[in-house]
Amino acid sequence: MITGFCIILNDNILYCSNQEKYSLFETILFIEKLIESINPNNIWRLNNVFFKNNGKTERIVIKHIISRDNNIFYCISGQFDTHSEETYNMLEDFHTKVESSYSSIERLTQASEESMFKEMINVSTDLLKIKYESRLKTEEIRHKIANLNQPLTQDNKILYCGISTQGLPIISKLFHPEFFDYLKTNKDEDIIEVFGSKLSAKLATIAMNTAIRADTRISEIHLNDLREERSKILILYGNINGYSLDFIGSTSGNEDILYSSFLKLKQDVSEENVLQDEFGGDLAPYRHLKKYLAQLVKDLKK
After folding, report:
1. Which end of the chain is more exposed for a tag (fewer CB within 10 A), N or C?
2. What CATH architecture applies to the domain 156-300?
3. What is the pLDDT of residues 167-182, one digit of tens each?
């Protein structure tokens, strides 16, 4: 089921076909801030965002284009199967139809200020719904990962793990700081620690803003890494009794191994007594979790 179309340019939502989904698409703005802070060379492209609410999963598919320091996002939301080719065909059609009418960012920006702009785009999105609705089936968004004991391979790396609650970072741990361009030349432990703390805060902010503004829970963010043809970045969120296990991984092989690692981490961390109670404001009882997470990640490589 298709629920909305959206065009975003930098910090501005130029077009949204469904006002009820406006807050959902706003999530892209928060994710863009995260990408800018850890991806200064523009080598990552936002591809998918997944949400879960009351047992239902919704997805935003995204065509992310960077042109002359402008970020433009063509987005479609709905309950789409992860491996559906028709979803991406529809996204390409949406981009092509808009670009054929507005051939430059300047023309698109100017047109978005005109009263007839939304009506003009609505004609295109209505045609896309007619064309694709029957081709798309509402299916389970992600197939189940059968084996939780798949060891990490060289093609799959855990880059970061952290725990947060209500937008507040509690612990954070970077495992491959050299993967982030900023830290390739800044290897001081204090700088790495600050970078990890800022990353943790941004991930927690995305989760909190999604919950407050869109009344749903973000579960996955997918990005393409342009450094290698098949390389992807996965950002995963796992709910643990009101806490969030925040995870970033890189894969150029079988991404199921990263999902398996994430689920195993979540399963083990969920048993910690300190996560059975609400956060009371004192970070001291949680400090041991940083070493515990590091050991769990080390064990996943065996």
Report:
1. C
2. 2-Layer Sandwich (3.30)
3. 899 999 999 888 887 7
